[in-house]
Design a protein that fits this description.
This protein is mostly helical. It is about 65% helix and about 0% strand.
């Protein structure tokens, strides 16, 4: 697995500085809109994005979904880096997977 690079914590801090809104409901509605756009991109998918065809691609739309998921978390003051390991432990119990989660 790749280590280093962009972290959830960095993205949350970056988006809090860039997009400091506090309306979780508004961000959630935008996220749902972006999920629809991702659905459309997946339905039309012709292959991996390139610089020339990035607009409207699954690669673009996935970032938009992540962006709004993180802004919802920020608006609700949720520290995802704290809660992701806890949720992964619950998933390990529920689904019985053995892949270690050790960020």
């Amino acid at each position: 697995m790749k280590t280093g690079g962009i972290t959830i914590g960095y993205l949350q801090e970056y988006l809090a500085a860039k997009d400091p809104g506090k309306d979780a409901n508004g961000y959630f509605l935008k996220m749902i809109e972006e999920v629809g756009e991702l659905s459309e991109a997946l339905r039309k998918r012709q292959g991996p994005a390139t610089v020339e065809n990035f607009k409207g691609s699954a690669e673009e739309e996935i970032w938009d979904v992540i962006y709004y998921a993180l802004t919802v978390a920020n608006a609700l003051q949720i520290d995802l880096e704290r809660w992701i390991p806890y949720k992964e432990a619950l998933n390990r119990e529920k689904y019985g997977h053995t892949v270690p989660f050790d960020p």
